[in-house]
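Tokens for chain A. Residues wanted.
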């Protein structure tokens, strides 16, 4: 009788497992995106501006998406746009605690001769062999575009301007600036000193994101040092209240350059023109690009970091499901009026077996517009999903005999509900340094 009992027991387990496999709760199916409501046809988009410059680019800050460009990767002399990187390196050193705003910085012979009042470039009129607070030099470099201030800061950080330039190039590589090489901290014309409109936009985006308080200095309209009042050379600060940076630059070789950023209704754009015929051309080019971008595009926040987008079945785990989401906010920039055409899907393996670590990629989020890929992001475990106990693992092992889920399944992502632009906070400015 024992063989018969064993056979009956095995059959009972198999039947029970099959029934359990058929009735086990499935993960909640994400809601389908809402059906578009009939509306007025979308108006055609106006053609992008064509600034009077050799190269330009318009970038969305939230997504890094390029909205329009011309020769954006062409290597060109950057003039004082170089100082955006000088500021970035100084800001990074401040954040690391290696230098401090109150440091007294020595004004060397080199800083005075190469960037002081005796030169034909922008200067903060620093006195030879004097000591100046680092904060005042930072203001002088950003607002007045002082070459002497830039060189003095470089020497204070790295010991020499040449060593500082090596730091600049290291940061450029980290930021993906593939068409950039720096030789000095001020942007003074030099062989093998170049950048591109695209790289300057990448750098500007990183500056705004990583050092918002220091970036806010660039919207201050004037700064007085040693009894001399100088005004910010970015005239868009006066004509367009949404503009809060970034930097002008001009030399005979570089032409006239301007990197500008503006924040309107929670959406930020970055415009860069290089090689303009004059400063009016550079300013007008950036203004036209910004206006066109804000009128033609909209940035939408889709999914937040840590938001649960799916909870599929987890096998052999302490829990029966695993929460999946994205590690970083997901946003897209699309032409106005096309939000209802967005489609988001989740690509997840049909069989997920514990364990999983928090942050481990499990699947992929894909976002398309009109059938074309627009954005993608790793779908990760939002918390640790450890193995279950011995009997849980054993039972799931039995059930897996009757589970035929192999490969990857694609399902709609949860309905997008955030239809307003991605909120982007305006950087807070430091109070102006004491006048001297």
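Reply:
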């Amino acid at each position: 009788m024992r063989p018969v009992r064993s056979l009956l027991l095995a059959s009972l387990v198999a039947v029970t497992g099959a029934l359990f496999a058929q009735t086990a709760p499935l993960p909640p199916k994400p809601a389908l995106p809402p059906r578009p409501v009939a509306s007025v046809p979308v108006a055609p988009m106006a053609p992008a501006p064509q600034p009077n410059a050799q190269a330009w680019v318009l970038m969305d800050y939230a997504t890094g998406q390029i909205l329009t460009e011309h020769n954006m990767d062409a290597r060109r002399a950057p003039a004082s746009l170089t100082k955006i990187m000088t500021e970035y390196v100084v800001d990074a050193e401040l954040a690391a605690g290696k230098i401090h705003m109150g440091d007294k910085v020595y004004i060397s012979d080199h800083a005075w001769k190469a960037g002081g009042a005796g030169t034909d470039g922008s200067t903060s009129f620093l006195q030879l062999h004097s000591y100046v607070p680092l904060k005042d030099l930072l203001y002088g470099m950003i607002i007045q575009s002082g070459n002497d201030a830039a060189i003095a800061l470089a020497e204070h950080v790295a010991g020499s301007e040449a060593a500082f330039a090596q730091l600049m190039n290291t940061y450029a590589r980290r930021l993906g600036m593939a068409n950039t090489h720096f030789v000095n901290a001020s942007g003074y014309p030099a062989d093998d000193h170049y950048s591109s409109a695209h790289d300057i936009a990448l750098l500007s985006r990183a500056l705004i994101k990583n050092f918002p308080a220091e970036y806010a200095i660039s919207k201050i309209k004037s700064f007085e040092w040693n009894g001399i009042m100088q005004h910010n050379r970015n005239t868009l600060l006066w004509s367009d209240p949404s503009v809060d940076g970034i930097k002008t630059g001009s030399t005979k070789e570089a032409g006239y350059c301007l990197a500008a950023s503006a924040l309107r209704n929670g959406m930020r754009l970055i415009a860069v023109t290089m090689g303009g015929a004059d400063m009016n051309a550079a300013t007008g080019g950036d203004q036209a690009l910004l206006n066109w971008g804000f009128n033609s595009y909209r940035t939408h926040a889709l999914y937040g970091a840590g938001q649960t987008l799916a909870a599929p079945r987890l096998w052999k785990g302490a829990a029966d499901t695993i929460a999946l989401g994205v590690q970083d906010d997901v946003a897209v920039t699309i032409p106005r009026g096309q939000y209802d055409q967005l489609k988001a899907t989740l690509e997840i393996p049909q069989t997920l077996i514990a364990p999983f670590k928090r942050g481990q990629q499990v699947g992929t989020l894909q976002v398309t517009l009109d059938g074309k890929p627009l954005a993608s992001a790793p779908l990760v475990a939002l918390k640790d999903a450890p193995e279950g106990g011995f009997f849980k693992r054993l039972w799931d092992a039995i059930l897996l005999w009757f589970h035929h889920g192999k490969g990857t399944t694609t399902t709609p992502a949860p309905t997008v509900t955030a239809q307003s632009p991605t909120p982007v906070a305006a950087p807070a400015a430091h109070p102006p340094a004491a006048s001297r």
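The domain at 55-299 is CATH 3.40.710.10 (Beta-lactamase). Residues 1-38, 417-426, 428-436 have pLDDT under 50 and may be disordered.
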